[in-house]
Design goal:
Helices cover 89% and strands 0% of the residues.
Length: 434
């Protein structure tokens, strides 16, 4: 039954994440084909900002909820969701102001309104989706995610067919599908009326649980976004677009990385209650192996036939066809990212967020040094090499971290196990001493 449950959950989380990644992949290909390199590079920077802000909500709302929900009784769940929705709405209002200010300061006044609307609708969809995933309801999330992510690609394709595609128009279309997806997800949730006093206490609890997740995953995102922003500063948004063109193909690994990663924190947290770090590692191990085969398949395709993948994605006359070497480097970086990400998720599940943050600080430091050293002389290739090495540093650090926690737990268990044996030896030997 344990293996059957693992396969069922892992299959549905991959199916759901596959739907999300299919929509994102198709959207990026459409925009890369139809927008100018400068406009597509601007969209890439917008996505980076979205991910940074969404991580705040994920770390302070969704992740604490996933830890809290797995130990809550059926009677507590409706109230817990109601209070969490209130906290999520309050946080979204703060973050949309940050989005508006950032977009204005960067001089992108023409997308302030569509960017803020897209952010709010995306946030509503993603938060309600995370509520379903926190309770292992991966199958229930598929319909809403299909509408939100595949729907956005279809609407943008329609705009392209009508020759009416612009960046603001694309953001408005994304807002529509995210809004509908949020409604579909919300219809499957059972929530009680929020209580302000309970919500205030819950906010303190969520902050305590999620603070290290916030630090960890802002560092994770910074590792990539730092390279993107340095590349944009040195080579312009067109260079950013070239980097993203290769990343779009390498991101075929994203459904596995994100899908398996969605399950590991709550799986590890649940197993940690009774089995400690060793039990949590064993529980997460099966999920990690389940996702490893498709990761290696995508890796092999990108290494062996990068030109074919780029030509298929962007067309025979695309300026992005020169990025075969960049794609190969990004594929290696993707495999390393899978290893580091799975272990980082397990560390969060066993409440070792501080340790995960230390690993990511080192990786971001490596990325920063390499970005300034390599991007100037090597451009896009330099950014890819910097990402690969930073991901390698993170993967090695994560392996060392989880191994250290397991060794520490075993060393603390050994005296407890040997104690009764030692006591028995003393009792047996006592008469001889007399």
């Amino acid at each position: 039954m344990g293996a059957k449950l693992l396969i069922q959950r892992a299959s549905w989380t991959l199916a759901d994440q596959g739907m999300v990644s299919l929509g994102n992949f198709s959207l990026n290909l459409l925009l890369a084909r139809t927008l100018s390199a400068e406009d597509y590079g601007e969209f890439v920077l917008f996505l980076g900002a979205i991910f940074m802000l969404r991580n705040v909500d994920h770390s302070l709302i969704s992740y604490p909820l996933s830890v809290r929900l797995c130990v809550a009784s059926k009677e507590e769940r409706a109230g817990l969701l109601g209070n969490t929705i209130l906290l999520a709405a309050a946080l979204a209002l703060v973050l949309v102001v940050v989005m508006a200010l950032g977009t204005t300061l960067l001089g992108a006044d023409h997308i302030v309104l569509p960017a803020c609307l897209c952010y709010l609708c995306w946030q509503a969809q993603e938060t309600s989706r995370r509520f379903l995933l926190a309770d292992f309801l991966y199958r229930a999330a598929v319909a809403g995610d299909g509408i939100a992510y595949v729907g956005q690609a279809l609407l943008v394709a329609l705009l392209a067919w009508l020759d009416a595609i612009t960046l603001p128009a694309a953001l408005y279309m994304m807002s529509v599908t995210f809004g509908i997806g949020a409604v579909v997800h919300a219809s499957k949730l059972r929530c009680a009326r929020p209580d302000l006093a309970e919500a205030r206490l819950l906010a303190h609890e969520y902050l305590s649980i999620g603070k290290w997740s916030l630090v960890t995953y802002q560092l994770v995102l910074s590792r990539l976004q730092l390279l993107v922003w340095v590349l944009a500063a040195v080579g312009g948004t067109a260079a950013t677009a070239s980097f993203q063109a290769g990343q779009n193909i390498a991101n075929m690994m994203a459904p596995i990385i994100l899908g398996i990663g969605n399950a590991i924190p709550q799986v590890a947290a649940h197993a940690h209650r009774t089995g400690g770090v060793i039990g949590a590692s064993r529980a997460a191990h099966g999920y990690v192996l389940f996702g490893l085969a498709p990761i290696l398949l995508i890796f092999a395709a990108a290494i062996l036939m990068p030109e074919l993948l780029l030509r298929t994605a962007y067309g025979p006359s695309s300026p992005y066809l020169a990025g075969a070497t960049a794609l190969q480097l990004l594929a290696v970086a993707g495999v390393l990212d899978y290893i580091g990400e799975m272990i980082s998720k397990a560390l969060l599940g066993v409440q070792a967020g501080r340790t995960a943050s230390v690993v990511n600080v080192v990786a971001v430091g490596a990325a920063a040094i390499l970005a300034f050293a390599l991007i100037g002389p090597l451009g896009v290739i330099g950014a890819c090499v910097a990402l690969l090495i930073a991901n390698l540093v993170r993967a090695i650090g994560a392996v060392i971290a989880i191994a250290w926690l397991i060794a520490d737990e075993r060393s603390r268990e050994w005296p407890a196990r040997s104690g009764p044996v030692a006591a028995t030896s003393e009792i047996v030997s006592a008469p001889a001493e007399r």
